[in-house]
Amino acid sequence: MSMILFACVVRVRDGLPLSASTDFYHSQDFLECRRRLKTLALRLAQYPGRGSAEGLDFSIHFSSSRDVACVAICSRQCPAAMAFCFLETLWWEFTASYDTTCIGLASRPYAFLEFDSVIQKVKWHFNYVSSTQMESSLEKIQEELKFQPPVVLTLEDTDVANGVMNGHPQMHLEPAPNFRMEPVTALGILSLILNIMCAALNLIRGIHLAEHSLQVAHEEIGNILAFLIPFVACIFQCYLYLFYSPARTMKVVLMLLFICLGNMYLHGLRNLWQILFHIGVAFLSSYQILTRQLQEKQSDCGV
């Protein structure tokens, strides 16, 4: 019988499933384990990098680093070192195939469907290749587990994610973090267009100034930076409007400050109306970012 039965890759911050293996197990216990895996995936950000949820016949093992976690359902006979070695291999394969930007921008479940075949291949390797061929990797993981043991849960503990523990509601629990934003408004689209226009003007002027400065003086370096820093700030404002980001208010204030200081420094290269236009667009974008709220998360979103 296979030791590793099912595996998936999820995004840590919201539990969004990115890719998963195909499973052929339909027993009631296995399906119940899959259901509990969904609730556990929503709470991975609250746990350390490695952990196991032990059940009667199956175990769930997870390993996370940065914004990506790999989760597997294994038989109880599967050694912990083998499970975590498998998860670490899967993590390296996935992060080598996709960069953090692609992972962060994924908006629908199983966006990296083509990676499913890689999961199947790695799963087959660990299920059917003799452990002696993986001896060095397993010894390394065993040493790490001795030094830093994984957090141990029971499968019943995963029901806490739904506010249930042994059938009793947990009134003190907070809902899972919500990262889906409200729909973009017409004024928001206008602010994006104006912001992109300002970014393009800053980039063009900055590159033009750099190209025509063969022997760049101190003052000219300052002017080039005064164009390019607001360019980056404008692009980041667009990102903050479109996507959720922690500490949003602080980032908005910083971007606004960079744009205002950059344009004030450029007084002389730009007239007063141009400076007011750039600063006005920056204030409009900042207002749109801060007023666009998070949307209630759909209950069926998960692994």
TrEMBL record:
GO biological process: endoplasmic reticulum to Golgi vesicle-mediated transport; protein transport
Record's bilayer topology term: Multi-pass membrane protein
Occurrences of domain Longin (ranges): 8-119
Key words, A-Z: Endoplasmic reticulum, ER-Golgi transport, Membrane, Protein transport, Transmembrane, Transmembrane helix, Transport
Annotated coiled-coil segments of the chain: none
InterPro entries: Longin-like_dom_sf, Longin_dom, SEC22a-c_C, Sec22a/c
Top-level taxon in the UniProt lineage: Eukaryota
Cellular component terms per the entry's GO annotation: endoplasmic reticulum membrane
Protein localization: Endoplasmic reticulum membrane
TM ranges: 184-204, 224-242, 249-266, 272-290
Family: Belongs to the synaptobrevin family.
PANTHER family per the UniProt record, alphabetical: LONGIN DOMAIN-CONTAINING PROTEIN, VESICLE-TRAFFICKING PROTEIN SEC22C
Functional note: May be involved in vesicle transport between the ER and the Golgi complex.
Protein name: Vesicle-trafficking protein SEC22c
The species this protein was found in: Monodon monoceros
